[in-house]
Design goal:
This protein is of the alpha+beta class. It is 35% helix and 32% strand. It has one domain (2-108).
Length: 139
């Protein structure tokens, strides 16, 4: 009785894993197709293949991180290789032609860029006014 229940639970886990992997692969095919269309490249073989699987902690819990490779052609003659990174079923990045063409925005808010005052060099980042006052008080 217990061994039958254990076998059913194990089979259920395997089916869930397989369905999740199939869904992630379908997403990777669609993402790679869209990235190639946006860059006006030709997606070869209209498919992706799984190159790497790992585990990643996210705010939502433990997720699989999968890397799918795909082949594309810039000019119709040479075969190039790109990849799609997925965490669970969320897009992390797409890499084509030596650069990341898509990066999924994180939940964090981007830092606001303050305008650089005239006469300041680009490599100097000014501190907010309140930090300057605190450091001046201690000096």
């Amino acid at each position: 009785m217990i061994s039958t229940l254990f076998a059913i639970i194990l089979l259920g886990i395997i089916i869930i894993f397989w369905m999740n992997a199939a869904r992630a692969r379908e997403l990777a095919v669609g993402i790679s197709r869209a990235a190639c269309e946006r860059e006006r490249y030709q997606l070869l073989d209209d498919s992706v293949y799984l190159q790497r699987v790992g585990l990643r902690w996210t705010p939502a819990g433990l997720r699989f991180r999968r890397m799918y490779r795909f082949d594309y052609s810039v000019d119709g003659r040479l075969r190039e290789s790109g990849y799609v990174l997925l965490i669970g079923t969320q897009l992390e990045a797409v890499h084509i032609q030596g650069r990341h063409t898509i990066e999924q925005k994180r939940e964090e808010q981007p830092a606001r860029e303050e305008p650089v005052p005239a006469g300041k060099k680009d490599n100097i980042i000014p501190f907010p006014e309140r930090r300057r006052r605190r450091s001046d008080e201690h000096s």
